[in-house]
Amino acid sequence: MTITQLQYVLAVAEHKNFTLAAEKCFVTQPTLSMQIQKLEDELDVKIFDRNKKPIQLTAVGEKIVEQAQNIVNESNRIKDIVDQQKGYIGGDFRIGIIPTIMPTLLPMFLNTFNKKYPKVNLIIEEYNTDEIITRLHKGALDAAIAATPLEEPELMESPLYYEPFVGYFPQEFRKGLSELSPEDLDINDILLLQDGHCFTNGILNLCKASRLDPNRKFDLYSGSFETLIRLANEGLGVTLLPYLHTLEMPEKYAKNVVPFKDPKPSREVSLIYPKTELKIQIVEALRKTIVGIIKGAIAFENVNIISPKNAK
């Protein structure tokens, strides 16, 4: 039994396909299949049920994969200890970012980080919060950036910044408002992101409502803020946006942005990583880079963090 064989098993378990797993491991499919077959022969069990499409783990295979993940993580930890001792900051680092943060935050810090830490190969993937939690537990991600708190006992959360909500209210919905309070929000006017976004849950909590008026003529959940803004511009409703999303907004749209009164409702955005602290030197390098940049974009005073329930 080798670490490499266990890594191949984990890849097939994740992708449920031998060819795709081989591509991700940078080996040929016959090589990967042969090594897994050798491991199955050595253990005298079948790890995968190859008759099912997609490939499924057997009952014993599920237990083997769970233990294999622990073994691979610990083997990575040995290399990580050596890297930390040498002060080395480099290698592959897989990070997940939720969709409501990725398009605004990533362009702000990525170039700076790459220049400062050229030996780090960031592998950036976009997932919703639930998928990020699952992948962090499985070891498929080294860290993530998401709205917190998550209340996950095996994960560490290092807050990066607090991002205020702002309203996007076209003139027909403004009613003379120069600042908003939660009482000004009518859930039946608000256009939301599709179900499952933590930002949507935050808005519903902020409005203290989760049911739409049954007489409403449409029920729309979009996957992007850009779509919500366009629909709002057509007079179909209003929406709430994270503050960073408004920084480069064209003037004709920026005039529709309405801030909240103090204390401003906000979301906590954190760097999340396993308590094993694998590759902690890269985690810390990311944290310092992002915090250093974000301070110039968001004022930290007078914010009110939304309930932890919004992060789920």
Question: How would you explain this protein's 3D organization?
Answer:
With 312 residues, the protein is α/β, with parallel strands linked by helices. The protein folds into three domains: 3-84, Arc Repressor Mutant, subunit A (Orthogonal Bundle); 90-162 and 267-301, D-Maltodextrin-Binding Protein, domain 2, CATH 3.40.190; 163-265, 3-Layer(aba) Sandwich (D-Maltodextrin-Binding Protein, domain 2). The protein has eleven helices and twelve strands. It has helices at 3-15, 18-25, 29-43, 59-86, 102-116, 129-138, 171-174, 198-207, 225-233, 251-254, 280-294, and strands spanning 48-49, 56-57, 91-97, 120-126, 143-148, 155-168, 192-193, 221-222, 239-242, 257-259, 264-274, 303-305. The strands form three sheets. Strands 3, 4, 5, 6, 9, 10, 11 and 12 form an eight-stranded mixed beta sheet that branches. It has a two-stranded antiparallel ribbon with strand order 1-2. The longest helix has 28 residues, at 59-86. The chain is elongated and about 75 Å long. The model is unreliable at 208-214, 216-222 and 307-312 (pLDDT under 50).
